[in-house]
């Protein structure tokens, strides 16, 4: 197989597999740190805002939400990696008192 054909095949595979991206919009995917994710979450859902809005959005985005524990998890895929997004919050009287996010990845 010549080099041009091999390059064309690899490029085609990369573009096809690279299009298989599943991360929730609230997440930063592979592009941000835990601190950046936490800042993004807190900007969208400021402390003191109703926790129901956060929980509803996490459900909409496909997270596994455990409101009684104040946690939500999502495992997305950005080939060749699995990207885990974890959201943790505390609330009092239905209002957010703490909110943070963590990300992790495992690549093949």
Describe this structure in words.
This protein is α+β, with helices and mostly antiparallel strands. The protein has one domain. The protein has 3 helices and 5 strands, in the order H-E-H-H-E-E-E-E. Strands 1, 2, 3, 4 and 5 form a 5-stranded antiparallel β-sheet that branches. Strand 2 and strand 3 form a beta hairpin. The relative contact order is 0.21. About 6% of the residues have low confidence.
* Series of H and E elements: HEHHEEEE
Overall mean pLDDT stands at 84
Radius of gyration: 18 Å
How much beta, percentage-wise?
Answer: 35-45%
Total of DSSP H or I helical runs spanning 4+ residues: 3
How many extended strands?
5
What is the count of structural domains? 1
Helicity level, as a percent range?
A: 25-40%
Low-confidence stretches: 13-19
User: Main sheet?
Assistant: 5 strands, antiparallel
Overall outline: elongated
- How far is the N terminus from the C terminus? 26 Å
Structural classification: alpha+beta
């Amino acid at each position: 197989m010549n080099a041009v054909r091999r390059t064309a095949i690899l490029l085609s595979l990369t573009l096809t597999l690279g299009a298989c991206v599943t991360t929730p919009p609230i997440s930063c995917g592979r592009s941000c740190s835990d601190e950046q994710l936490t800042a993004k979450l807190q900007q969208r859902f400021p402390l003191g805002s109703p926790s129901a809005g956060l929980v509803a959005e996490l459900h909409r985005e496909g997270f596994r939400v455990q409101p009684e524990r104040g946690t939500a998890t999502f495992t997305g895929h950005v080939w060749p990696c699995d990207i885990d997004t974890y959201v943790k919050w505390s609330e009092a009287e239905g209002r957010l008192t703490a909110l943070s996010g963590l990300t992790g990845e495992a690549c093949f």
